[in-house]
Amino acid sequence: MSWVTWRLYRAQAVIAAALLAAFAVLIVVTGVQVASQWHSALAACTTAHSCGSLPNTLFLGSHAVGFLVIMTLGVPAVLGILLGAPLLAHEFETGTNLYAWMQSVTRRRWLLVKIGWLVLAAAAIGGIVSALVTWWSGPNNALQGNAFNPGRFDIMGIVPAGYAVFAVALGIAAGALLRRTLPAIAVTLAGFIAARVVVFFWLRAHFMTAVTSYFPVGGGAPTGVGWQLAAGYVGANGQPIGIPLSTNGAVLGNGSGVGLPVTSLPASCGQLAGNGQMTPAIYHAVVSCAQAHGIRGYVTYQPASRYWAFQGIETGIFVLLAAALLAVTFAVVSRRDA
Amino acid sequence: MTWVVWRQYRMAGAIALALLAALAAVIIVDGVQIAARWHSVLVTCAGSSACLEQQPTLVNGVVSDLPYLCLIVPAVLGMLWGAPLVAHELEARTSDFAWTQSVTRTRWLTAEAGWLLLAAAVCGGAVAALTTWWSGPINAMTGGAFAPGQFDTQGIVPIGYAVFAMALGIAAGTVFRRTLPAIAVVLGGFIGMRLVISNFLRPHYLPAVTTYYHLTSSFTPPGQAWVFAQGAVSSTGTTVAAGWGDLYPALQPACQRLLPSVAGQGKSDSLSAVFSCMQAHGWRGFATYQPAYRYWPFQGIETGIYVLLAAALVAATFVIIRRRDA
């Protein structure tokens, strides 16, 4: 059966290998450039004592390659559409399953070997693409410290392999149930996007209980914030301070990315700011007043140290979903009349 | 023939209509909220540009990524409708039946391809109209309608993309005679063409404008321009990008000494002395950009390119179908 699977998929395997090789060449060539750009920028900013502003001023790599790297988000869906959905649906459509099932190989073994090799191939392709992207993004992660952020988390580490396995399993299951390739492709595309959106927007932030840290107004936010979920300010008794969408006045420190408008402070502190220019002396007076009123900043976040735990949990979810879909496929195919 | 096309695609049409209606509902509900937030920001910020520069967050949650997800709509249309149009008829041998009726092959293809291309244009246009309206407040605040990404989801270009993807699917299906390879070609060809044109051709539809200005004054290209580069250029032609990350090694020693040793403090204050010094040493500020008034010409040029590509692909399809043995 392994030999049959190879004969069925050798053309696809050659094309996939060629595309992977082209992608690898592009990523390695540009990745070396990005790394050297990063090291020379680090050296230059150390000389000029301006490394603090480096994240705002340095753009690593080119827009075109950067865009291509983001587009690897779509690789699992493509695998599900082109490898997963036709795996059974195309056999049913053309009736070739009838021939296959009348050989000496049992239906279960036929299914097991085909699915096994295809899922393995999907995991390998997803893993290789992810390894290339992870390596390429190394300097950028060091520069921006945002590997945990939505969008970046999704293209690096081990999760892309989990997505790829899930997408292929979804395509196989959709093909087994719908018995036609095109509807299976449509279901795979929609189902993959839906599963990713649900896990990403509603589940990922709650894999582990988020940490909330408080810091003094005007001070810096805590370090080690991997993925910031919320930020703001609370008063002495813990009630949140309302921050308007926009403000026409001065704003106090924004270590967490959220500034505290003077207009949101108690009136006694707001008066200190006046309407004129914010000199350092006035700024410190206002900050001290806010601190005296017990106002603190807070950040709710998932610490950077949980990065690999989150990668493992998310990969586990998608691999479990894939296992469930494959179990359904086995049940459907073994019970179907030939 | 129109009736045949309707019978073949009524299910697909109903599904597409339902999805479009769902998208419209989500976009409109969210868009009304964004517009309300934008109006409250405008009231607060009346007469203060510094207020707007803080870029208040208008969008939130799931819906903010929806317009970008709409970038794949043309590819989906081309994959699910375009690629099987001819390929699936050949695969299922239904072409034998269709081509032996009283309807000529040319008329068969004209009706099938014509209605599908029209449907693609309507779908692309409807999605584009929704995202364009949704993006209105964001465009007004960030001035970014011309920037790559936003330009691609708004205006009339999505119609051109959809027509092209559909034509690519039809042509690929005709050439390969099998659905799956045609789907793969649509996916690869559409993404490849979009990458090449938006990265390498679009910046050069019209020659970019470069404006020079005194470093001690500031300059922002008016309106929603597409800025390629902004920074300073020396009398010998050395350029330093805005952001000033590479400023130090490029400067004359006299100016180097004026650079603040700790970065991150009020940039305009601490750098004004450096700018005066640079101005005295022959540096000028420059901005290279596509002006805002070229937005619609660029939309027209890009749409035209894709429609022409689509026309060429459809013409090739006609030639192949007419010459093929049944």
What does this structure look like?
The complex is a heterodimer of chains A (338) and B (326). Chain A has 2 domains: 2-208 and 305-335, no CATH class; 211-303, no CATH class. Helix content of chain A is 64%, strand content 8%. Chain A is built from 12 helices and 5 strands. Chain A has helices at 2-48, 54-57, 63-71, 75-94, 96-101, 107-136, 138-144, 159-178, 181-203, 267-273, 280-292, 307-335, and strands at 211-216, 225-234, 251-252, 260-261, 296-303. In chain A, helix 4 packs antiparallel against helix 9 (181-203), helix 6 runs antiparallel to helix 8 (159-178) and helix 6 runs antiparallel to helix 12 (307-335). The longest helix of chain A has 47 residues, at 2-48. Chain A is elongated and about 90 Å long. The two termini of chain A are 19 Å apart. Chain B is an alpha+beta fold. Chain B folds into 2 domains: 2-205 and 296-323, no CATH class; 209-292, no CATH class. Helix content of chain B is 65%, strand content 7%. In chain B, strand 2 and strand 3 form a beta hairpin. The relative contact order of chain B is 0.12. At the A-B interface, helix 1, helix 2, helix 3, helix 4 and helix 9 of A face helix 1, helix 4, helix 9 and helix 10 of B.
Any chance you could write out the topology, listing elements then pairs?
The complex is a heterodimer of chains A (338) and B (326).
Chain A: H1 2-48, H2 54-57, H3 63-71, H4 75-94, H5 96-101, H6 107-136, H7 138-144, H8 159-178, H9 181-203, E1 211-216, E2 225-234, E3 251-252, E4 260-261, H10 267-273, H11 280-292, E5 296-303, H12 307-335
Antiparallel strand pairs in A: 1-5, 2-5, 3-4
Helix pairs in contact in A: 1-6, 4-6, 4-8, 4-9, 6-8, 6-12, 8-9, 8-12, 10-11
Chain B: H1 2-44, H2 49-53, H3 66-69, H4 73-91, H5 94-98, H6 105-142, H7 150-153, H8 157-176, H9 179-201, E1 209-213, E2 226-233, E3 239-241, H10 247-250, H11 253-256, H12 267-280, E4 284-290, H13 295-323
Antiparallel strand pairs in B: 1-4, 2-3, 2-4
Helix pairs in contact in B: 1-6, 4-6, 4-8, 4-9, 6-8, 6-13, 8-9, 8-13
